[in-house]
Design goal:
The chain has 14 helices and 4 strands. The longest helix is centred in the middle third of the chain and has 42 residues. α3 packs antiparallel against α9. The chain is mainly alpha-helical.
Amino acid sequence: MADLLLRLDLQFFAGEKTEKATPKKRQDSRKKGQVLKSQDVTSAIVLLFVFLFLFFAAGFMRDHFFVFFEHTFNEYLSIDQLDHEGVMLIYLQMVKQMAYILLPVMLIAVIAGVAGNLVQFGLLFTGEPLKFDLKKIDPIKGLKRIFSVRALVELLKSLLKITFIGSVTTFIVMMNIDKVLGLAFKTPHDTLVTVGQLVALMGIVASFVLLFISVLDYFYQKYDYEKNLRMSKQDIKDEYKNTEGDPIIKSRIKQRQREMAMRRMMQEVPKADVVITNPTHYAIALKYDDKDMDAPVIVAKGVDFVAQKIKLIAKEHDIVMVENRPLARALYDETEIGDRIPEQFFKTVAEILAYVYRIQRKI
């Protein structure tokens, strides 16, 4: 019973998401469009740049407004009869004048919005968030999102925005209350200038307040993002298996490869001219053909069990075995199968081969 409870506890803790996300998990989430992002940061940057532009470009926009009204009242309204071509001409001219006024603001907003996203998560193009997913319209999950910690944070954030932005705008109006009360005695031109300055000033200050709140929201979004990306120990193991392969399967493959390499090596032993032994721990099989080789080549080598296997095959095929402990140890340590022997062993190996050839009556 105790062992069963212990296994259940281990399974529970293995499934608990306590580990930081791996680079692969982060990359997969990014491909799905799940990135660290605070919408308030983007909104604050857009508002700030738009109001800064309005503050400094108010004169430019005012002039184009006057041009627009001047054309409207002086030219368009004085026309008695309009045909199809005249209506289209007026329409195009009005669109052109409005474009001069609105396009700069829209362009600044687009650039600021793109910049706000680039600052947070860089350049990303993905269509995953646009795919249809039935889970998004699941009513149960919808209720969970409504009554969740995230929903509470969003509510508190909205209250902070209303409180702070309302306070600073009210403060600006109260600081300029004399100008506001004096608007009734000013000309339309002066009224428009004063209202524009106050609106731009309130917008800039409100943008800075929103930017401050968005920084706090960014840190919360980062915490929530990292929390949602957390993995359990079992998740990490499964990911490793999927990317690197199952360790058990990999070990079996390596074992299979070793067995095949061993069989190929043993098939070369009958072709050897001599086997140099330790005599019990090491066995090195050498082959030399003066027509095709400039030096003897290692065709097989091994220690302990493998060495005994080499010697057994050599004995079955009448391969001469020569005992030379220093040479066997040195060749095993310094060469690999298929290598030619090093030059420092030429003399010793030549003497051994001469001895073998005499035995085999090849000389």
